[in-house]
Amino acid sequence: MTEIAESSRSPYKVKLVRGPFLRLEPHPEECGDDTAFLHYAEQLRSEGKLLAADLFCGAGGLSYGLESAGFRVVLSADHDREALETHRHHFGGLTLDWDLGDADRVKHVAELVKQAGITLLSGGPPCQPFSKAGRYKIRHRVREGQRDPYDERRDLWRSFLEVVRLALPPAVVMENVPDMALDREMFILRTMVHELESLGYAVEERVVDTWRYGVPQFRQRLILVALRDGRHFEWPDETPDKVTVWNAIGDLPEVEGGWRPEGGAHGWKEYTQPLTRFQKKMRKQVPSTDAGKVFDHITRPVREDDEIAFESMSTSTRYSDLPDELKRYRDDIFRDKYKRLDEDGLSRTITAHIAKDGYWYIHPRQNRTLTVREAARLQTFPDGFRFAGPPSAAFRQVGNAVPPFLGEHLGGAVMAALDEARPAGPTTQHIAETLATWFTSLSHRNLPWLTASSRWQVISAEILLDRMPPQQSRPLWPLLARWTTPTDTLTAEKELLEISRWIGREKRGEQLLAVATELVGAPHMLSDDELLPKVAGISQAVADLAILTVPVSANDDEADEADDSESEEPVLARQGVLRVAARMSGEDVHRRNRLTDGRLAVARLIGYGANARNAHLGLLELATSLCRPADPLCVECPLQKLCAGSKAEEQKQQLLY
C-alpha cells in the first residue's frame, strides 16, 4: 500500500490530505457484462428478491440503505472512478462507469432496468449546480471568464427521467438538495412531477430533515417518490430519539491530527466497545476478527497556530471572535470558517467540502478536525464500510453520499406501499385543471386584476388596492384598468391622487406615481423579470404577481421580442395561498416551514404545463373569496371533494349532529 498525494489528481486547487491509498477488490457477485447481469437478476428474482438500481450512485450510501430495507441493488452507474471502486466492492451486480449525459448510455441503462425486472429505480443527479454555493461558484467563474455558463450536469435530471420513461419501473426514488426544487419558479421539480404523472405515476415530494431519521447532523434533502399505477406512498415515521454527535462518535479512540496507523491502508486504531444504540449499529457487521479495530480513523495534520485557535474555541465561538494573530483568513468573509461541533447537538452538514479542509468540523473535545471514520459515522456509514482511494477521496465520497439511514427508511416505506397497493389521492394535474377551469369560468372576481392585460395594471392595483375589502376594490378596478402603462398613470396624475384621497390612501397614490416616474425613465425594467423587483417601490411579492399574471410574451406593448422561456411563472407562497395549501393537505404548512413545505404544497396545487398559470391565479382568487381565514365557504369551493380540511370539517359536523 503506497501513500500518494492527491493534489495532482484532484479538481481542487488546494493541498489535500495525503495518506494511504486504499484499493478495494470487486464484490464476489460482480457481473462483468450484460448477459451475466441479466442471469444474476433472474436468479435473485426467482428467490423472491426485489431488485433496485441506483443511478449517480456515488460510494453507495443510498444503495446501502435500500439493501438494509430489503432491496437488492444490482445495477449502479456513476462517473467517479474512486466512488465506483467503493460501490463495486460493497455491492454485487453490474456497476457501470458511464456518463449518463450520453443519450445512447441512457437508452442502454433503461433497457437493462427493464429486462432485469428492477422494481425500484433510485438516484440523485449531481446537485452542485443547484446548491446556493454551487450557483455562486458558477456565476463567479462565468464573470471571470473561467468557464462556459452552460453546465451540462444541470440536465442529468432529464437523463434520469428518460430512464424512467423508457423502463417504467414500479417505483422511483430521487434525492437532491432542496435548492433543486425551491428556486423562484420551482421549474425542475414541477416539470418532473408533471412528466411522471403523465407516465401514470403518483408522485410525492418532501424536503426531509435527515436528523428525524436518526442521522446525527443538520442535513436537508429533497426526496421525490413516484409509484406506478397510482399507488399511495406513506412517508416513513420519524425515529423517536435524536442522535447527537457524541452519541455517534464518542466511542472512537482519541487520535492526534495527522496520525497514521502502521500498515498503511490496512492499518487500524485500537478500539474498545460501542456504548450507545447508534454505535452498536455501526459495529454490528464488523467481523469478529476486527472487533478490536477501527479503520480509516485518520485526519489532517494540525498547524501549530490552528491548534492554539482550536484550543480557545467553544461550540459558540465564531472565526471572527478569534484573536487577530490566530486568523489566517479575512473574518468579514469567513466569519464561520472554523466551527467546533457541539457534542450534545447535531453536526453541521457533512459535505464534499470536507475534502478541501475540515475547519467546519472541529472535533468537540480534541483539537483537530474530524477523521474519515468520524465523518462516515455522522453520515451513518457503518464501520465496516471502506472507501477507495486516498483520504481526500474518502472524505469526498462521504460528503457526497445519501445517509444510509435515510435510504433505509425510504426503502422500507416504498416496500410497504408496494405491498399495500392503496390508491393515491388526486394528481397535481387533476387539481390544477380543476382550479384553472373554475377560475376562467368566473364572472366576478374579488381580485379582478388577475385578468389584467398589462403588468402595470397589476402593479397599480396591488400598490393602491391591496388588502382593501373586495366590495370597495372591485368598483375601483375599472378606473385603474384604464391606465395600462406608467405614462398613462402620470398623464392622469390628478385623477389618481383624487381616487387615493377617496379611499384614504394618499401615500400609496404618491408611491404609485413615483414608481411610474422611474419606469417611464427605464421602460425595459417592466418587462424584465429580474429587474422588476429592483424598482424602488415594487416589492418582490408585487413583482411576482405581475410576472405571474402577465408573462412577457403576453405583454407586447412592454416587450417587442418575447420568449416564453424567459418568463417562467414564479410560485407565490402568500399567506392566503398557504392557507389553502394547508387545508388541502391537512398539514400546517402555513405556519411552519413556509419556504420549504409550504412552497411544495403550493406547487402540488398548480402543477406545470397548460393549466399552471390559471391554476395559480385561481388559487389566489380562492384564498380571497372562498377559502377565508374564518368561515370558509367550503360548499362553493371547486376543491371541496379533494380537500383534507373540508373532509375533516364534514366529519366533525356529522359527529356533532
Automatic annotation (TrEMBL):
Record's keyword annotation contains Protein biosynthesis: no
Matches recorded under InterPro entries: C5-Methyltransferase, C5_MeTfrase, C5_meth_CS, DNA_glycosylase, HhH_base_excis_C, SAM-dependent_MTases_sf
Enzyme Commission number(s) from the entry: 2.1.1.37
Active site: C127
Keywords assigned: Methyltransferase, Restriction system, S-adenosyl-L-methionine, Transferase
Pfam families: DNA_methylase
Keyword Endoplasmic reticulum applies: no
Class in the EC hierarchy, top level: transferase
Family indicated by similarity: Belongs to the class I-like SAM-binding methyltransferase superfamily. C5-methyltransferase family.
The protein's name: DNA (cytosine-5-)-methyltransferase
Origin organism lineage: Bacteria, Bacillati, Actinomycetota, Actinomycetes, Kitasatosporales
